[in-house]
Design brief:
- Helix content is 56%, strand content 2%.
- With 358 residues, the protein is mostly helical.
- Strand 1 (327-329) and strand 2 form a beta hairpin.
- Helix 1 packs parallel to helix 16, helix 1 runs antiparallel to helix 17 (298-310) and helix 16 runs antiparallel to helix 17.
- It is globular, with a radius of gyration of 19 Å.
Length: 358
């Protein structure tokens, strides 16, 4: 697959799709992760939100009122801060600074400079703890770190979803170059993840890089699958999700297959992402609505599905984008709130600059 021209429309819709999908899932994330799919479904029924095709209404007196109110329909006028969008912006900043050459050490330094420890979770928080213990060595001028960065990834969450949610921009800025995108994602992921955690990130980046050069998502999926180990956990999760398109009780089958995994593991959520995307290639609302209603890590899956769907170049329906008015809030140091137009412009600039790089 060869590189293709940078397309501003695709990048705009990828940002809009990712942010909207994240906000949809953010409202019910804690409910889904802590109480499970049955509780999530019960809430969506109580909110008269099934099938899920718009932001979730707030039902007072529920866990959602405490943990997700700011992302419910009618409760926000900007996209509220979320780690999924933090990492997307941070990856963009890394590409702005380093082009195609950001190292894992560069990622580590950027975290310490820009990413609040309180905005990290599981594998990222464990890696951050190790970084803080070695910060002085990491910032030694002109010298490699005086400790093994791989220590950061030796944590009990290293095959969870965290690296997978950091990978999108690497594909957006490498249209038609999925291998390059996967390589960038691996360097980022290696700071906190190992094994399937890294390969899930590589797959998402490769998928994003393949979509602009493909005629259908199926074709892009074939290309992306070549960039992860055949027979590995990620390859099998992708294949399983794909095999359930058009199958009755598909979501139940995915839940049954991965019943023993944590709700924020990379593999179970990736299977849902692939199933939702391929099942609703022509309907953005259904793609993000169904993946969020399916449970597990709802904001991460809504964001990933939304961003990948947006790369098709088709517009994101206005009822998803109008409520947040192009305002994108993050919790990165010195950033605060960004404008969608600025993020799109910056991403296009980076993509064009690196499009001729090897």
């Amino acid at each position: 697959m060869s590189s293709v021209a940078v397309d501003t429309t695709r990048i705009r819709n990828a940002w809009a799709g990712r942010i909207s999908g994240c906000q949809l899932g953010k409202a019910v994330e804690v409910l889904s992760v802590t109480r499970g799919r049955e509780a999530l479904t019960a809430y969506l029924r109580q909110a008269d939100a099934l099938p899920l095709r718009d932001y979730v209404s707030l039902v007072t007196g529920t866990l959602v009122e405490v943990t997700g109110r700011e992302s419910c329909r009618g409760q926000f006028s900007r996209s509220e801060p979320d780690d999924d969008i933090n990492y997307t912006v941070l990856a963009l900043m890394l590409l702005e600074r380093h082009g195609l050459a950001p190292s894992t050490q560069d990622v580590a330094r950027a975290w310490l400079q820009l990413l609040p420890a309180g905005a990290t979770w599981t594998a990222e928080r464990a890696a951050y703890r190790t970084l803080l213990q070695n910060a002085s060595e990491l910032f030694a001028q002109g010298a490699p770190p005086g400790f093994d960065l791989a220590e950061c990834a030796r944590n009990e969450y290293s095959d969870w979803i965290g690296a997978q949610i950091r990978a999108d921009v690497y594909g957006w800025t490498c249209p038609g170059r999925p291998g390059v995108a996967a390589g960038l994602a691996r360097r980022d992921a290696a700071l906190s993840h190992r094994g399937d955690g890294v390969e899930a990130a590589a797959f998402v980046a490769a998928f994003a890089g393949a979509i602009p050069a493909a005629s259908r998502l199926d074709e892009a999926l074939d290309v992306a699958s070549r960039h992860v180990p055949r027979g590995g956990g990620v390859f099998e999760a992708v294949s399983f999700g794909r095999s359930l398109v058009g199958v009755e009780r598909a979501v139940e089958k995915i839940h049954e297959r991965y019943a023993g995994l944590p709700p924020v593991h990379a593999l179970n959520n990736l299977a849902l992402v692939v199933w939702a995307l391929l099942s609703h290639e022509d309907d953005y609302s259904a793609a993000i609505g169904e993946v969020v209603a399916a449970g597990w890590d709802t904001d991460c899956n809504g964001a990933t599905v939304g961003g990948l769907w947006g790369l098709s170049g088709r517009p994101i329906p206005e009822h998803w984008t109008a409520p947040w008015q192009g305002r994108v809030a993050v919790t990165l140091a010195g950033v605060g709130e960004l404008r969608l137009d600025d993020l799109v412009g910056r991403t296009v600039t980076v993509a064009e600059r690196i499009s001729t790089a090897v």
